[in-house]
């Protein structure tokens, strides 16, 4: 997946806001709280394209020295909005604390992952009680004591924000390469640890934005760096013990500015796979993993609209591509003629082939059938022999988990549903037995029999049937409140998964619904294509029509619906708040992509060129300009009543820049004709995903739920 506005908010469980601001300074001095919301100054600014002139009086909120944000006027305005957020939320702090307490009580604090074998070692991670971050361990398969190999808590102790990026153990098990972001800017610094001695090597690679791939018999790493616009255009090799200045560039993307480069190893770890592409086109090269500077093999030159990814087994190339069917096919080829592909599994209108994995004695295909996840084991000898992994529930989310070894006689699988907590299985290939290894524990208690989940279909205005996943208590009154969530972009299908934080709404009488709207690929690749570019408004219409359909079916009532979405899903929130404001009882927009036209007109912004295939290029196309203008939430704010709204931003966010929500809120404050709450909170030390740390994140969720309950008159 290219680096896009694809966000941390894509999970159906995502209900995250920024951590609460307090009414005291760090020295305990009381701060005078504001009594009215801030008003952003209007400054004359306009721009013209294709003979159309647009006024943009809040353009000044974009700091012209970005990515440095040091304009005092900008910072003071953001601080004033934060102070207003604090003042309005302060009376509801007891509710936030109550929600935080119950959400935290559902978390097993001293939790750990299921150990998994790689080579001579078993690897796993643990949370200690009260800890914000993980510790990573391993122990010999042959027996022995656990060894701590990385402690996120230690790495995070002196920083406000911490996020672990890549985590890669060398094939011989001696070295650990990892990367970390300490300010939310999504620029990671890579380090290497000798696991035999416990020492950190002096090698330090700044500015990475990629995986870390071991090559050259574990003497070198392949990585990619973020340029000034957070674009990875390179695959570069660092040899251990040498200066970074001497690193060797293996590949650089020079043809297409919007393409991104990524690297990985083949199933047998004998080939380095270097891929480049954007949201609709790809191109792949292969080089021997033990000789990465050798002449690369180009699998097939890029063709606009053709996506493909590859793997290699015993000298045969395997290709997953949409070249002759929108739902992809699986093909093979020889390394001598890598561009001549012979179909192994043909594309299908019914089955959406999303991925494949090669193992020694079998291979696995993953996909979706009628929107439900499928895992299928297949024989190399007999392509017609298909062994599906069966699950009992009617709606669920399932997929291959961590399976790091090529020679496997059992597969690690993850599974959950809207009523079944996250579960880890081993699937025994010979017998077909699913062995439950672990199910998410909920210390405060959870009785699945109290809840019910449904999958319904609702007709959109063009007649298309939109699937909706719903979970609620069995004793919920009919037409009670309902929370509706969706994303609807980049071909991401929101899984009908489990969430402990969601229970704080459901146990208070809410139904929780996920709208599987077009723009995601829930029902196949066409489902995605029907929600992008010139069909983008299908996404917004689907969401509104689902809400109206749920009202018509008696799930809830008009005005009793709270909604949330983040990033591109925040764009969705902005559009539907403009078009159908009276439907919503509360709107939460996380880091919302709402200044769409301005962003797509600015080729110097980090993500804009790679985004044109998704949204259109309004610089070159008058039609794209007019179409984006017709729905861009910031541009379509009008003088009307709006529902209560909570909006978040991250000052260091490279995906949705902080000024998008800031400008949007400023314009809403100017034009809206109601007295409903409008709050903006900017995390001044974080990025796209809000605060880091598991408990900080939960407190953010508690704030959001408190806002929804407050606005829906359900605080008693």
TrEMBL record:
GO terms for biological process: proteolysis. InterPro entries: AB_hydrolase_fold (IPR029058), Pept_S9A_N (IPR023302), Peptidase_S9_cat (IPR001375), Peptidase_S9A (IPR002470), Serine_Peptidase_S9A (IPR051543). PANTHER family: PROLYL ENDOPEPTIDASE-LIKE, PROTEASE FAMILY S9A OLIGOPEPTIDASE. Belongs to the peptidase S9A family. This is S9 family peptidase. Residues 1-23 form the signal peptide. Keywords: Hydrolase, Protease, Serine protease, Signal. Residues 24-46 are annotated as: Disordered. Residues 37-440 form the Peptidase S9A N-terminal domain. Residues 498-713 form the Peptidase S9 prolyl oligopeptidase catalytic domain. It holds the Pfam family Peptidase_S9_N. SUPFAM superfamilies: alpha/beta-Hydrolases, Peptidase/esterase 'gauge' domain. Residues 24-34 have a biased composition (Polar residues). One of its GO terms (molecular function) is serine-type endopeptidase activity.
